[in-house]
Amino acid sequence: MLRVLCGDVEALDPGLMNLIYRFRHDFFVDHLRWEACRRQDGRERDAFDGPDCLHVVGQEPAGRGAGTIVSYARLLPTTRPHLMTHLYPELLKGRSAPSGPRIYEWTRCAVAPGKRESAKGIDAVSGASFTAVAEAAEHFGLEGLLVQTHPVLVTRLMDMGWDVEALALPCTYDGSLLLPVYARLTPETVATCRRLFGLSGPVLRIPASDDTRPPSPAARPTLS
Fold first, then answer.
1. In degrees, to the nearest 5, what angle opens at C-alpha 131 toward C-alphas 198 and 220?
2. CA 83, CA 55: separation in Å to the nearest integer?
3. Backbone dihedral angles phi then psi of residue 136, each to the nearest 5 degrees
4. Which EC number(s) does the record attach to this protein (predicted)?
5. CB-based contact 51:7 (threshold 8 Å)
6. Which tens digits make up the pLDDT trace of 181-217?
7. Which of 36, 110, 178, 187 has its CA 20 to 30 A from that of 25?
8. 2-201 is classed in which CATH architecture?
9. CA–CA separation, 67 vs 60, rounded Å?
10. What are the extents of the domains in the chain?
C-alpha cells in the first residue's frame, strides 16, 4: 500500500524525507532534465516544501529493494504560495485560480521510470499512485486539486472520475505545452479510479492518529 505523510515529516522521519528528495531529483532532474532544479546534494527540494504539504508515497514493500520509493505526489495548500500562482502565474493568463482550505495543488507527480506504463496500458504502480491521490483528497475532505498538465492528459483525469475544468487556454512553458485545470473531487472519483485500474479496495494507508482535516498551513515560505 501507499501512505500519506503530513506534518513536520522532516523532523519526524528525516531519513524518509531524504529518500523522497533524492527520488525527486533522480526523476525530475536526471530523468526529465529539469536543470533549474539541479542541486549538488542530489536532493530536489523547493520553497514550497514544508509541514503543510501532503506527501503521497509509494515504496517497494518487500524483498530486494524494500523501502525504495517507486511513486510520489505532493499536494500543496492554496491558502499560501503555491506553484500555479507564485511560480508561473502566466499559465492563468490573468485569471484567478480556485483557492481555499479545501483546495490543494497536485504537484511533483512521479513514478519510477522502470515502473511506468507500457504500451499495454497503465501499470499497477501508476494506477495505485493516481488512486492514492484521490483517496487522500477524499480522506482529508478536499473539494478538488489544481493541476498543471499536458492537454492530452486531461482526458485521463476525466476517465479517473475527476470533474475537470480548464482555467485558461494551453500555453508553452519552458518548452512544454501546459494547461492549468481544476479537478473537482466527486463522490464517484475514488471508486472510478479503483475500477479503472482494477483495484479491489483502498491502496492508501493512513495512520490512525490522522484525522480528516488537512494540516493547518504553516508560515508562508520565502520565495527567491
1. 175
2. 16
3. -65, -45
4. 2.3.1.184
5. yes
6. 999 999 999 999 999 999 999 999 886 655 555 655 5
7. 178
8. 3-Layer(aba) Sandwich (3.40)
9. 5
10. 2-201
What's the 3-state SS for the chain? CEEEEECCHHHHCHHHHHHHHHHHHHHHHHHCCCHHHCCCCCCCCCCCCCCCCEEEEEECCCCCCCCCEEEEEEEEECCCCCHHHHCCHHHHCCCCCCCCCCEEEEEEEEECHHHCCECCECCHHHHHHHHHHHHHHHHCCCCEEEEEECHHHHHHHHHCCCEEEECCCCEEECCEEEEEEEEECCCCHHHHHHHHCCCCCCCEECCCCCCCCCCCCCCCCCCC
Render pLDDT for 21-49 as a digit per residue (tens, 0 to 9). 999 999 999 898 888 889 889 999 999 99
